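Sharing in case it's useful to others searching the archive later.

Someone asked me privately for the predicted structure of N-alpha-acetyltransferase 50, so I'm posting the question and my answer publicly. Question first, with the sequence:
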Amino acid sequence: MKGSRIELGDVTPHNIKQLKRLNQVIFPVSYNDKFYKDVLEVGELAKLGTKMLNHVLNICEKDGTFDNIYLHVQISNESAIDFYQKFGFEIIETKKNYYKRIEPADAHVLQKSLRSPCAQPSGELQKTE
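And my answer, the predicted structure tokens:
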């Protein structure tokens, strides 16, 4: 069987319901109507994703009690993996059969460390820059 090619265009008021349906079928989380309204206002999903991730990272860093942030990405979603790696996330594990209704079913676990190590095993302080 030959591979298929799928191209996704810009999100518009004419296809926002299709995006909502795709998200309902593919993702294990639900997004409210405000999310989709914001997608239309921003015009590009990547810009919204960047804005949302920056918001979460800022909250976690300001809170000061979080050491790490973890997320799961389908192993074939190279654009998402690249996106998160630009923000300092690293692949630390792969979970087999993480997804139930999509192929491939495996997911990478990505981690972003929010704290620099402040002490080496010998007990000496490590200078961070």
